[in-house]
Specification:
Pfam family, one: DUF4484
Strand order of the largest sheet: 2-3-1-4
Helix content: 40-55%
Organism: Friedmanniomyces endolithicus
Largest sheet: 4 strands, parallel
Number of helices: 13
Structural class: alpha/beta
Distance between the termini: 41 Å
Shape: globular
Number of strands: 8
Protein name: DUF4484 domain-containing protein
Strand content: 5-15%
Oligomer: single chain
Order of helices and strands: HHEHHEHEEHHHHHHEHHEEE
Length: 361
């Protein structure tokens, strides 16, 4: 599963959200097909609805709880794909480029780059059926880097433990034995774009830049206080806390033999799969329970038995859900989530800069 994060980078997050909206997602790439089929399966896993979240949903959404992985498809499957229920969605991969020209066949196309040893790193491209290019938000970028850092720390902790065991040292002396919440670094995540990331990440909007500049000016350049960045960091720490507990990824204390390269690789894959699956399922649960709470509060304010025609979603609500308040794609995601999972319409407020109660941008 680490290959999924490495291959898609920050684009994994908008791709995950598209799968959560049960879009018809078609990956177009070159052989080997097995690699692309693995991506299809893993996307279907991380976009599944965890059991705790189903309690906030109505029974008529049962058919949506898991998106359908179709794995490898071709030209011969066009008729079958066209007849499938659009509401439940699917994820598939193909090496037939002609399927990418069938715009009515899919909602989101994932154009996987062809491997070229020694060339500059290339990221996938995510055009929709109507030609819009989907990019990751600025918050997706920070979240991607934080996940990378957490996985790296878990590997370092495991390797440190393995070195200690191999040298005959005591675990209690050198090996960290704390949950991941304790080894998660407190350092801020940089917004600087690296390695072609500008091609797949939305640029900082003028409104966001103006807001941040105004906030800095209003606080006289002070970095003290409870900022949006602090809230964002706390949110991510809660998602990553104890994912998994470090003892679960360290060597068996009774096993004093060093693992083979194959065993180490397998353990790393299992560890990464555990972290990423749990992380995305927690994120999904947070999305759904947050929306359910907003819907219930809105209906409670109306007469008994009367539903609110349109649910108001504030910028603070969007931020609390772990989304980017400056991203129109994230706002549209909230609208579609409410429509798909709760059969309700949403009016999502857009963040802006206000002075003396007047919106200036």
């Amino acid at each position: 599963m680490s290959g999924l994060l490495d291959s898609f980078g920050p684009l994994l997050f908008p791709l995950y959200r598209a799968a959560l909206l049960r879009k018809r997602i078609l990956l177009i790439g070159s052989p080997p097909v097995q690699v692309n089929c693995n991506a299809v399966y893993l996307l279907s896993v991380i976009s599944g609805i965890p059991q705790p979240a189903t309690e906030a949903l109505s029974p008529d959404t049962d058919s949506l709880l898991r998106t359908q992985p179709l794995f490898s498809v071709g030209v011969a499957d066009i008729a079958s794909l066209s007849s499938k229920d659009d509401r439940t969605g699917w994820i598939a991969t193909s090496t037939d480029d002609i399927l990418g020209d069938k715009h009515k066949l899919y909602d989101l196309l994932v154009e996987l780059p062809k491997p070229a040893p020694g060339s500059k790193r290339q990221w996938p491209r995510l055009p929709t059926a109507d030609g819009k290019i989907i990019k990751a938000s600025q918050r997706d970028l920070r979240r991607y880097r934080m996940l990378q850092a957490e996985l790296k720390r878990l590997r370092l902790a495991r390797n440190s433990h393995a070195d200690c065991v191999e040298s005959g040292g005591s675990e209690s002396d050198e090996a960290p034995m704390l949950g991941s919440r304790h080894i998660l670094a407190e350092s801020a995540v940089s917004d600087e774009l690296l390695d072609g990331e500008h091609e797949v990440v939305e640029p900082v909007s003028w409104t966001a830049a103006a807001y941040n500049s105004f906030l800095w000016w209003a606080s006289a350049g002070s970095t003290q206080g409870d900022t949006d960045a602090d809230e964002e960091m706390r949110f991510e720490h809660e998602l990553l806390g104890d994912l998994p507990h470090l003892q679960d990824v360290l060597e068996d204390e009774n096993d004093n033999s060093a693992p083979t390269d194959e065993e180490a690789s397998q353990r790393d894959a299992e560890e990464t799969a555990t972290v990423l699956t749990s992380y995305f399922h927690r994120l999904t649960e947070h999305f759904i329970t947050s929306l359910a709470s907003i819907v219930n509060e809105a209906d409670d304010e109306t007469e008994a038995g009367v539903e609110e025609d349109e649910i108001a979603i504030t910028a603070d609500d969007v931020r609390a859900m772990g989304l980017d308040v400056w991203s129109e794609n994230d706002a549209e995601f909230v609208r579609e989530m409410l429509r798909l999972w709760f059969d309700r319409e949403a009016a999502v407020a857009v963040e802006g800069v206000r002075m003396c109660g007047v919106k200036v941008c």
